[in-house]
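Morning - pyridoxal-5'-phosphate inputs below, output right after.
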Amino acid sequence: MISEKMKKLAGNNSAIRAMFEEGNRLAALYGRENVYDFSLGNPNFPAPKEVNEAAIDILQNTDPVYLHGYMSNAGYPEARKAIADSLNRRFGTSFTEGNIIMTVGAAGSLNVALKTIINPGDEVIAIAPYFVEYGNYVANFDGVLKVVNANPEDFQIDPEAIAAAITDKTKAIIINSPNNPTGVIYSEESIMKLAAVLDAAQKKFGTDIYIISDEPYRELVYDDTPVPYVTKYYANSFVCYSWSKSLSLPGERIGYLVIPSEVSDFELTFTAASIANRVMGCVNAPSLFQLVAARCVDVPTDVSGYDANRRLLYDGLTKLGFDCVFPAGAFYLWMKTPGEEAEFVANAKKYNLLLVPGKSFACPGYVRIAYCVAKETIERALPAFAKLAAEYGLGK
Ligand code: PLP
């Protein structure tokens, strides 16, 4: 028989599969173009042309033994150097390749960070609403996820609530900005207050408490909103990055982990994290895309399409009377449900609108609408949202 842990996960997975199958069922009944699937965070814009150009050039002009061979678990030094240099130019940091580990996307990066620091029973704080996989990642290492709500007014970090949740077992807090699912970007003030709370708690308990900053949406920012670089505010920080969203490469599984030299026991931590990459079975991140990413490290993310979707959806829904958070980043709209959440999600489905319930992010009373879809999907969906709004007596 399979493990008890995996039995539980296999059971939970059916909810996600049910949503996927529901999309297919509705598409078969009404036609794909008449089903408004806002459930998945899969970028709908293709990777920029520089990605394929780099891949072809690397395949044609790199020694195949080098390109396809085993390497250091941390990844190719030249890829790590290109990333460190780019971060230093953009954020005024002073990283070298010795601070970067190439990983299998942000998911790989988060798991490496957590494996490196967690002892069984250690607590890891997540800020609700949060990306649902955090619970699974922390459980991978027999850690305990502790959920603290964001400030319900603006979904920024609530420093007092975090201070109250910290114990002598707290090992880390995972933050995610720009945020999935709210689209909120944590302000410099939020990060500074968080750093102050953690510094005080480290002193009080005599422990290390890490910030794990999950940043797959760092480049998906609108209106030039600044996204503070956490290592500049707090020494015990890890940064988990990925090109899944910024270069539309989720299937390639490529990202990195930053471990700044200021982290406690830096040398040991960096070595341990490199080994974590290996012993979890990743060994190293995919070789071709390490080199592709290194070449594309300064290719800008074109957010104009997502921005147009953001405005269209936000304006359309607020005009209908829905209460939404105006997203500053990422490609999700976070909307209050006018009635009971499960009933609202079911009612939305009557109009072929597929939305993710807030309870999937540990924050009931909301839905997440992923607008990484074709603009026409939003245009066609708005009349369906209008019918839904009318059912709830909104906009009168
Ligand atoms: N973290 C957040 C907040 C995400 O939304 C996602 C993917 O949607 C991930 C991590 C995982 O990203 P990756 O595909 O790079 O593993």
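Note: The chain has 13 helices and 13 strands.

O.
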